[in-house]
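Side project, low priority. Logging it here so it doesn't get lost.
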Amino acid sequence: MYKVAKASEYLVITGVGIKDIKLAKKAWILPGQSYTVFDLSPVNYTFEVQAMSAEKLPFVLPAVFTIGPRVNDHESLLKYAKLISPHDKLSNHVKELVQGIIEGETRVLAASMTMEEVFRGTKEFKQEVFEKVQLELNQFGLLIYNANVKQLVDVPGHEYFSYLGQKTQMEAANQAKVDVAEATMKGEIGSKLRKGQTLQNAAKIDAETKVIAVRRTGEGEKEGIKVRSEVKVFENEREAEVAQANSELATKKAAWTKENNIEIHLDLTRYFFKSQI
C-alpha cells in the first residue's frame, strides 16, 4: 500500500524492518507495518499565568503562544512523533503539557524578582520567560513560533501594577513640569546672555573703531610730519646748493676781475714804454 502525506503532514511508520520509527512524506506500507499521520501546523495556546513575585505579591501574565513541531530538525521531529503526535494537538493533554511548562518557568522566574523589577523590566522578563519555556519544549520537539504576552495584570485586591502605573505617570508629569521650567529658565538666561553679548560686542566694536580712527589719524599726522620734514630737508639742501653755487660764482668773479686788472696794468705798461721810445 503506497501512502503520500499532505504538504503539512508526515507519515510515521513502524513495524517489520524498522528498528524504531520512520518519518516519510511518501512510502510503501508493507505487510507487518503500520503508519499514522501527524500534522506539522502550529497551534495557538492562550493562557493567563498566575505568578508571584519575591515579595509574595501575585500577578497575572496573559499570554498567547504559537507552538508546533520543529520542522527543520529531524531529531526534533522524531521526539515529536513519539511523544506528542499520538495525542490530538488540541487535546487537554497537549494543552496541559504546554501550559504546565509555561506556568512553571514563569513562576520560578517571577519568584526570583521583585515586583518593581518585573514592572520596570517587563520586556526583559518576557524574553527570559520565552527562553526558559523554549528550553523545556526542546525535549518534546516543540518550537515557539510566536509569543505575544500582554500587559501584566493585577490580581483583584492586589492593585500593585495600577499603583506603579499611576506613580510612573505622576513621575512623568512632574518630570515634564521640571523640564518645562528648566527649558523656560534656560530660555530666559539664554536671552539675557544674548543681549549682554550683543552689548559687549557692540562696545568692543565701537572701541576698536575709535582705536582704528585714532591710529589712522596718528598715521596721517606722522606721514604729514614726515613729508614736511622731507620737504624742509630738500629746501635746505637746495638753499645750500644755491649758496655754494653763489660762493663759487663770487670766487670766480673775483678771480676774473683780478686777472682783468693785471692784464689792463700790463697793457698800460707796454703802452707807456712804447710811447717813450
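Brief comment: The radius of gyration is 59 Å.
Revisit when time allows.
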